[in-house]
Amino acid sequence: MKIRKRSDCPVSSTLDILGDKWSLLIIRDIMFQGKNTYGDFAQSAEKIATNILADRLMLLDEAGIVEKKDHPESKAKFYYRLTEKGIDLMPLLMEVILWGDKYMDISAEARIFARQIRKDKGRLLKALSVDLRKQRTKERARTSLPATKAPRTRTT
Amino acid sequence: MKIRKRSDCPVSSTLDILGDKWSLLIIRDIMFQGKNTYGDFAQSAEKIATNILADRLMLLDEAGIVEKKDHPESKAKFYYRLTEKGIDLMPLLMEVILWGDKYMDISAEARIFARQIRKDKGRLLKALSVDLRKQRTKERARTSLPATKAPRTRTT
DNA sequence: AAATGTACTTGCAAAATGCAAGTGAAATTT
DNA sequence: AAATTTCACTTGCATTTTGCAAGTACATTT
Lengths: 156, 156
Hints:
The structure is a homodimer.
Chain A: H1 10-18, H2 23-33, H3 38-42, H4 50-62, E1 66-70, E2 78-82, H5 84-87, H6 90-103, H7 108-119, H8 121-134, H9 140-143
Antiparallel strand pairs in A: 1-2
Helix pairs in contact in A: 6-7, 7-8
The structure holds a DNA duplex.
């Protein structure tokens, strides 16, 4: 599977990488669901096929959006985390969530999260970005491993 | 081609409709390039295959994102325009452009447009939305038919 | 009336996706 | 320490989607 650049348009070029039904769901899982392993991703509600999952993780790694690291607590697992390039997709994902909230039939839990985004996107963006960056430091184990389904927002 | 909903997540549900390499390019063309006909879309730099184009226009119509109308100036053409639901995708598209601008190799023209978005997203959003809504009124012919490649922004 | 423009449709090959069943190393259970 | 289970994939194959080239039908132009 090869990625070909179709034009020099930013929309087209971004879709060359992310324009499929699965890539953004993996990013969503890391970004908002506290997921970090192959097994975590495989268990999501959308039931991605394992070969597709392996393929997308490889492509997202090659694209510099996720990084594959040794898992800090088990040699049997790998730990996938977002790079800065991946974290920078958060505003895009938030707009996807806002549009989805407005026009699609979604869960009550998702509506609550959308409302938080609508209320103060900038603050939530910053808070969640900080959390994701902690996955890139020693603080990881303490703060972020327990998954937060609807991430609580700190006022401080 | 049937759309199946994979879960009640807003990201997943949005991708069920827009998660492919072509749909958002058609929306981009209407939204930012002043394109409105099948022939316009077929001529874009990415060279979409005509069968795919016909299929996506049908799906976007079914999804309520675009509307197919008689062309005001020719019985040989149809006029595709965005619905409110489609216009509401503008913030999402703008974030795609901003991310693409930051990380992809794109044209100078696109970089200029990205800079306009970065400078005052809210104002540009409003100005362009107004223009798109004019396609839905009698004012259409006067204001919007000439395509604006890098849309000029009015200060008033 | 003939040529061209416009919006598609059709047929077929190639590629991507989806499903089920493996594989091998690490962790856990017995 | 042997057996079982967990984990991260890989493989094979059927189905679906995409891409390409050519064709069709109606509208407009010449």
